[in-house]
Write a structure and sequence with these properties.
Layout: H1 25-45, H2 52-61, H3 64-79, H4 83-104, H5 107-118, H6 127-130, E1 146-152, E2 174-180, E3 183-185, E4 198-204
Antiparallel strand pairs: 1-4, 2-3, 2-4
């Protein structure tokens, strides 16, 4: 049996790190990533009209298995980074990136999120919950130590130049996607921005965007 999925006998279901075999992470991540993608596919395929519950909340709750496996892995990696764990981490980067891109660039999912975003004022949501209705419809797991925000481009931001490389961003901020209307663009440095474009920015959680 894969040690990652062994039932914990510790209080509050805490991770039993001493029982984990590093080699089991590859299989566990493959299974968890596939499970997350299947959950997202089910969300996309549903025919019911989008609601906060069946779209935003469902997306946020998807990937519980991936969160579990990631929690164990990244805690171990940060506490005692062995050569094997570092190697697995490098292998995971493109796989997790591909999963994030699959969610970000899903047109059917974007259409559901967009419909809710346009209706957000009439959904009866409080301000904190309303802010979760994002046109990008994706979040970064807390264990990565990073945070993601959206920032709309203004004419003031373009005062020093209209190319992405010329706008004023903090050193720790990274633009990972640009949305213009219904279109998404890869954020290359020479990309000409327009007022109203929305930047998806990632930065370390201890920093402020």
């Amino acid at each position: 049996m894969n040690s990652i999925y062994s039932s914990s006998t510790l209080p509050h279901g805490a991770y039993a790190f001493d029982q984990v075999q590093a080699g089991d992470f590859r299989e566990a991540f493959r299974h968890a990533i596939a499970a997350k993608r299947a959950e997202v596919d089910t969300l996309i395929a549903q025919r019911e009209e989008p609601t906060f519950s069946n779209t935003i909340l469902a997306l946020e709750r998807s990937g519980a298995e991936l969160e579990w496996v990631s929690g164990i892995f990244y805690n171990l990696l940060h506490a005692e980074a062995s050569d094997e764990l570092m190697e697995i981490s490098q292998e995971l980067t493109p796989e997790l990136s591909e999963l994030s891109s699959y969610i970000l660039l899903s047109e059917p999912l974007f259409a559901r999120v967009r419909q809710l975003w346009e209706q957000r004022e009439s959904l009866g949501l409080d301000e904190e919950v309303k802010n979760e209705v994002s046109l990008f419809g994706v979040e970064i797991p807390q264990h990565t130590g990073a945070k993601m925000v959206e920032r709309e481009v203004t004419e003031e931001m373009l005062a020093s130049g209209r190319r992405l490389m010329e706008i004023d961003l903090r050193e720790e901020e990274l633009v990972i996607l640009v949305r213009r209307g219904d279109d998404y663009m890869v954020p290359k440095g020479k990309l000409a921005l327009q007022a109203g474009d929305v930047l998806l920015i990632v930065f370390e959680q201890h920093s402020k965007a």
